[in-house]
Automatic annotation (TrEMBL), chain A:
Keywords: ATP-binding, DNA replication, DNA-binding, Nucleotide-binding, Nucleus. It comes from Camelus ferus (Wild bactrian camel). This is Origin recognition complex subunit 4. Belongs to the ORC4 family. Residues 154-341 form the Origin recognition complex subunit 4 C-terminal domain.
Automatic annotation (TrEMBL), chain B:
This is Origin recognition complex subunit 1. Component of the origin recognition complex (ORC) that binds origins of replication. DNA-binding is ATP-dependent, however specific DNA sequences that define origins of replication have not been identified so far. ORC is required to assemble the pre-replication complex necessary to initiate DNA replication. GO terms for molecular function: ATP binding; ATP hydrolysis activity; chromatin binding; DNA replication origin binding; metal ion binding. The keyword Metal-binding applies. It comes from the Eukaryota. Residues 241-257, 272-290, 439-449 have a biased composition (Polar residues). PROSITE patterns: BAH. Belongs to the ORC1 family. The gene is ORC1. Keywords: ATP-binding, DNA replication, DNA-binding, Magnesium, Metal-binding, Nucleotide-binding, Nucleus, Phosphoprotein. The keyword Calcium does not apply. Gene3D superfamilies: 2.30.30.490, P-loop containing nucleotide triphosphate hydrolases (3.40.50.300). InterPro entries: AAA+_ATPase (IPR003593), AAA_lid_10 (IPR041083), ATPase_AAA_core (IPR003959), BAH_dom (IPR001025), BAH_sf (IPR043151), Cdc6_C (IPR015163), ORC1/CDC6 (IPR050311), P-loop_NTPase (IPR027417).
């Protein structure tokens, strides 16, 4: 997210001000206060004091660090900046001890401390306990993707163009020209607009550009609109439909049977036996191209679908329940199935017909 | 404990007494007496070799105890030329805490332990010696006298070798006793004789030590058999000084080992009692024995024994105990049969055999390295060792830290450079050093430390310095740049508005202050205990008021208006676990460290049976509700202690909720808490205004209206003073920012404050929705549509998706694929605009709005 931007800015500030100690913590890495404390001690280079002493206990560690931070006062000790990435995860720690103490220090005449929390959650304040919240300065900066499409286009251009310091000047010029023309191309604009509509995120733009750039070859070293188009397709691909394309005819048939069941019973869960019966009906009455598979074979196909997570059991699989009667739900939408079927290579016509009209075979 | 005069107090001048005895070989001068003269006072302390001395450490209260073995001048050491060699004694507090229980009893107050550990350094700076002390050795059966008239008397009963306590052997006791009384007198004449011969062995410090340890020293001394080696004899003849056989032999052996590596081998063999040279001993001994008999009287043997001790290098401590019996037997045999050699040899052989295999192995392990040293020039050895000591001195200087006086003169200066560069770390963290770790004493806080300070791991450790208190408090390194002074009124205002800037008096809490003050004061005056419960929402000044009360009471106590008391503060939030409260209290009360259970016992004992008249303890327990446990034993104990007559404990508890005692406490707990309650009401707007005005006294930074506005705003919301101050501080920043260009910061106006308030209280959801992408917005719209359709506040993803597709169709937008919609959904979920289940549920995952539907509609309409 945009957390990165904030961090970058922060670094710039700190380069100016070297007289500052930084402590970086990440909620995903420091999963509890204990590890966080250890990390703080490490980053403050206090561990020599901890050293090889028997200093394992969490409580000792805490009091040690608190004492360390308490010692200082405003004028003498070096300011410390704590940067808590994934701040919301720190709020889930027991009692929010770490946050309370950090805020408390920042609010009292101890070592000057700045605590910066980074999170994507907008409701972070609600996670804080009341006394922690009271100590929090309530200063929030929201970073939003507030730019419009023209800016987006500009960013796109800037991201793609080569810098002036690029060694091969001529190539850089050519490349940049190409990028310029790209940004004016209508189809490219359309693609970008589409992408922008879906996601304003710059990271997703990077993803798109990366995919496009991967298509650049030495023989033709320029990005084309076609490349972008392809990349966009890759980005917006429906992963499940892709999986459906790779299924066997039998499995497709099963999915169609499930779809019919869904239609008939209005989204009620089904079990294997029902699906099998439906399939049997289809094969016996209508199908000429589909071989009537034996039950174990169909069962195998059914299990394969379950492994692909195209169907999901309603409850946890219990050992004693018979697999045939376990209730399942289809995780595919009707439209998805139909779309996939249209693209499915070598689909027997009767299967396709069966899919379109559940009652046609009657 | 007496406060020993240290160098910090007065400048002391160290000078040698007596003629220096030059060692020609190594240019090293030895002395037998040193005088310490305090500047500004005429008294001089004479310290003689063999006496027990106090040596300056990092702890003024507990200087190190040691026996002076040798004084000498070392020219190669740049900073400290006066050196001394000592045999250390340990105080009980110096024994590592985890080993202390090995003693199995409580140590007597003045008890020390013979430090029997070979790997510690005995070479120290002579100028760290403070003065004499008396050490009395006690036999294992004797009881340490409890009435201590003379605080400068120590008692030795056991020896400590880093692994276990062992009783002193009777010989050692006798020896120590005699030393104490006899050494200054009877040693002198002998010293004169032996000085010159002694010195070479001193300069080759390590070498001699090891040799001595390899043989049992007493043996080699007692047996004049060594002259058998021709080379040694030659040297004997060369040196025309009169000497006692004892020292001569030791010297010879040391030389011999220095000269020929082959000899060292012999010595290893020697310990196995199979060496050929030894076999030749009887002959030599017989030839020489008549000559030897005269000097070798018992007293002298003891003396030589004393010298042994003086020379006692760390290495030889290992065998010191075993050697002593040998001495005894020689004594006896001498007196009776006048054949000292045989007796000596025999007895010396025995201990060697007794030696544990590990010891032998250890020595053998040391062998190669020793041989290297031995083969290299003595000069180099000396330089090396002096370098090490130099490093150690530097370390010591660093540890003495800023408390160091200028007394050390030129010695101090070079070291000061180092300590300067490392000064921030010195102040920052006197690291609690494990006393005898081999790795260098201080790993550096910041890389500023020179590596030169790190002594090689080989360095034996026992120097006076590395004994810092175990629980040194670390500090963040200090800043290089001074904090800026506030330059204009706005900055000044900001400083004053910071929560940490506690004002002189707390306005609007006078009544509460008075109540608490009266309560605590009455308890103090009555010498009784009691509990008080203080509640109030966050930011109403509970803790600040109590602190204020305590401060006032402490002032009053100083003025003798109220009896003195001890104040302890515990914060439930700063504990990891409720039971840790015991540990904290105990630590703050007595400085002891214990586990939670043990601490609870100790505290209970302390508060229940308080024999001696001690001060009242005032205990502040902040964030009481966090001390809640299933059994509520922590709270129970806290409130139970004050009810005991002897306890004299006043407990002030602070928590947020008013009905905490009723809500979470069991009856028996809340009944003990009593009914002394106090609740801090949230500040009203006029009170908040008053607080702000009092903080901004004489500072024209805010408009009056602005202050009133913020006070009213906050009072309407929470009455949290912290919040109020935060808003004001933010407003000053906004003001400063907006006035940046004109240059003259104006007053903080209502507009600025409103901006600040908006910033803090406005919901971010709407802006977030406004700034989200088209797809996200239409997804939200689909959710709304689905809610409206179903009439529920919850929908599955599949339902929302179909709605979404329908919506897109209606508006003619290209509809997204399932994967895209899923990504959008999870993104909104991560922002917490939506509440979603874990995405494992896929299509069936339930979606709920985290914002009100109206807000979403409002935000979407704006567009």
């Amino acid at each position: 997210m945009l957390i990165n931007h904030a961090l970058k800015e922060l670094m710039e500030v700190e380069e100016v001000n070297e007289n500052v100690l930084q402590v970086h913590l990440n909620g995903l890495l420091q999963i509890n206060d204990k590890t966080a404390l250890k990390e703080i001690t490490r980053q403050l280079n206090l561990e020599n004091v901890v050293g090889d002493k028997v200093f394992g206990s969490f409580a000792e560690n805490l009091s040690f660090l608190l004492e360390a931070l308490k010692k200082g006062d405003r004028t003498s000790s070096c300011p410390v900046i704590f940067i808590l990435d994934e701040f919301d995860l720190f709020a889930h720690h027991k009692n929010q001890t770490l946050l309370y103490n950090l805020f408390d220090i920042s609010q009292s005449a101890q070592t000057p401390v700045a605590v910066i929390g980074l999170t994507c959650r907008l409701d972070i304040l609600e996670l804080l306990e009341k006394r922690v919240k009271s100590r929090f300065s309530h200063r929030q900066i929201h970073l939003m993707n507030s730019f419009g499409f023209p800016q987006y286009l500009k960013i796109f251009k800037e991201q793609l163009s080569l810098p002036a310091v690029f060694p091969d000047k001529i190539f850089a010029e050519k490349w940049n020209e190409n990028v310029q023309s790209l940004s004016e191309d209508r189809s490219v604009r359309e693609i970008l607009q589409k992408h922008f509509n879906v996601n304003k995120n710059l990271r997703s733009l990077h993803m798109l550009l990366m995919l496009a750039l991967n298509r650049v070859t030495p023989s033709y070293p320029f990005v084309t609109a076609a490349h972008l188009m392809e990349a966009n397709q890759l980005c917006s691909m429906d992963s499940k439909a892709n999986i459906v394309h790779g299924l066997s005819v039998l499995e497709i048939c099963l999915i169609i049977a499930m779809k019919h069941l869904n239609d008939i019973y209005e989204e009620e869960p089904f079990n294997f036996q029902m699906v099998y019966n439906e399939f049997q009906k289809f094969v016996q009455r209508k199908a000429h191209s589909v071989y009537n598979f034996e039950k174990p074979v169909v069962m195998k196909a059914f299990e394969h679908l379950q492994q692909l997570e195209l169907i999901r059991p309603m409850e946890r699989t219990s050992v004693n329940a018979q697999r045939e009667y376990q209730l399942m739900k289809l995780l595919l939408d009707n439209t998805q199935i139909m779309n996939a079927l249209q693209k499915y290579p070598n689909c027997p016509t009767d299967v396709r017909q069966w899919a379109t009209s559940s009652l046609s075979w009657l | 404990m007496a406060h020993y005069p240290t160098r910090l107090k007065t400048r002391q001048i160290y000078s040698w007494v007596g003629r220096p005895l030059l060692d020609r070989k190594l240019h090293c001068q030895t002395y037998k007496e040193m005088s310490v003269k305090k500047e500004g006072c005429s008294t001089e302390i004479h310290i003689q070799v063999g006496q027990f001395v106090l040596i300056e450490g990092d702890d003024d209260e507990n200087p190190y105890v040691a026996k002076l073995l040798e004084l000498f001048e070392d020219d190669s050491a740049t900073y400290s030329k006066k050196r001394a060699r000592v045999q250390w004694f340990m105080r009980f507090c110096e024994v590592p805490v985890n080993k202390q229980n090995l003693l199995g009893r409580k140590p007597a107050a003045q008890e020390i332990f013979w430090y029997d550990y070979p790997a510690c350094n005995s070479n120290i700076n002579a100028e760290t010696i403070i003065g004499h002390v008396q050490v009395v050795a006690l036999a294992p059966g004797e009881v340490i006298p409890m009435d201590l008239k003379n605080e400068k008397t120590f008692f030795v009963k056991l020896s400590w070798n880093e692994k276990k306590f062992e009783p002193l052997s009777p010989e050692l006791i006798a020896q120590l006793d005699k030393l104490q009384e006899g050494s200054p007198r009877c040693q002198k004449p002998l010293e004169a004789k032996t000085k010159s011969t002694e010195s070479p062995s001193w300069t080759t410090e390590h070498a001699v030590k090891r040799i001595e340890s390899r043989h049992s020293t007493s043996k080699s001394r007692q047996t004049p058999s060594h002259p058998v080696t021709p080379r040694a004899r030659k040297r004997l003849e060369l040196s025309s000084f009169p000497r006692t056989p004892n020292t001569r032999i030791s010297q010879q052996t040391s030389r011999a080992s220095l000269d020929s590596p082959g000899r060292t081998k012999r010595k290893v063999a020697f310990s196995e009692i199979t060496s050929p040279s030894k076999r030749s001993q009887p002959d030599g001994a017989q030839t020489l024995s008549p000559a030897l008999q005269a000097p070798e009287k018992t007293g002298e043997i003891q003396h030589s024994c004393a010298k042994d001790d003086k020379k006692a290098s760390p290495d030889c401590h290992m065998i010191l105990r075993t050697r002593v019996p040998a001495l005894k037997t020689t004594e006896i045999s001498e007196e009776r049969t006048l054949t000292p050699t045989r007796g000596g040899r025999k007895s010396s052989v025995v201990p060697l055999v007794v030696l544990k295999p590990e010891n032998i192995r250890k020595r053998e392990a040391k062998e190669p390295e020793f041989r290297d040293e031995a083969t290299s020039t003595p000069h180099r050895i000396r330089r090396k060792s002096s370098l090490l000591t130099l490093n150690r001195i530097r370390q010591q200087l660093r540890f003495l830290g800023n408390s160091k006086s200028d007394e050390e003169g030129e010695e101090f200066l070079p070291a000061a450079e180092i300590s300067d560069s490392g000064s921030e770390e010195d102040e920052a963290s006197p690291p609690p050093l494990p006393r005898r770790t081999h790795s260098s004493v201080s790993r550096n806080l910041r890389s500023s430390m020179k590596s030169s300070l790190q002594t090689p791991s080989k360095t034996p450790k026992k120097t006076p310095e590395p004994r810092t208190p175990r629980h040194a408090t670390p500090r963040i390194r200090s800043r290089n740049l001074a904090a800026q002074e506030p330059t204009n009124t706005l900055e000044e205002a900001r400083l004053r508005l910071h929560v940490s800037a506690v004002p002189q008096s707390l306005p609007c809490r006078e009544q509460e202050f008075q109540d608490i003050y009266n309560f605590v004061e009455s308890k103090l005056l009555d010498h009784t205990g009691g509990c008080m419960y203080i509640s109030g929402v966050p930011g109403t000044g509970k803790t600040a008021t109590v602190h204020e009360v305590i401060r006032c009471l402490q002032q009053a106590a100083q003025a003798n208006d109220v009896p003195p008391f001890q104040y302890i503060e515990v914060n439930g939030m700063k504990l990891t676990e409720p039971h840790q409260v015991y540990v904290q209290i105990l630590q703050k009360l007595t400085g002891q460290r214990a586990t939670a259970n043990h601490a609870a016992e100790l505290l209970a004992k302390r508060f229940r049976t308080r024999g001696s008249s001690q001060d009242t303890t005032v205990l502040l327990v902040d964030e009481l509700d966090l001390l809640w446990t299933q059994k509520q034993d922590v709270m129970y104990n806290l409130f139970d202690w004050p009810t005991h007559k002897e306890a004299r404990l006043v407990v002030l508890t602070i928590a947020n909720t008013m009905d905490l005692p009723e809500r979470i406490m069991m009856n028996r707990v809340s009944s003990r808490l009593g009914l002394t309650r106090m609740s801090f009401q949230p500040y009203t707007h006029s009170q908040l205004q008053q607080i702000l005005v009092s903080r901004l006294e004489h500072l024209k930074a805010f408009e009056d209206d602005a202050i009133q506005l913020v006070a009213r705003k906050v009072a309407a919301l929470s009455g949290d003073a912290r919040r109020c101050l935060d808003i004001c501080r933010r407003a000053t920043e906004i003001c400063e920012y907006s006035h940046q260009k004109p240059g003259s910061p104006g007053l903080v106006t209502t507009a600025h404050l409103l901006e600040a308030v908006d910033e803090m209280f406005s919901s971010s959801y709407i802006t977030a929705i406004k700034n989200s992408s088209v797809l996200e917005q239409s997804f939200l719209r689909a959710i709304l549509a689905e809610f409206r359709r179903s009439g529920l506040e919850e929908a599955t993803f599949q339902q929302v998706y179909s709605q979404h597709v329908a919506l897109c169709r209606m508006e003619g937008l290209p509809y997204p694929t399932m994967s895209e919609a899923m990504a959008v959904c999870s993104h909104l979920g991560s922002c917490r605009l939506l509440l979603v289940e874990p995405s494992r549920n896929d299509l069936l995952l339930r979606v709920r709005l985290n914002v009100s539907q109206d807000d979403v509609l409002y935000a979407l309409k704006e567009e």
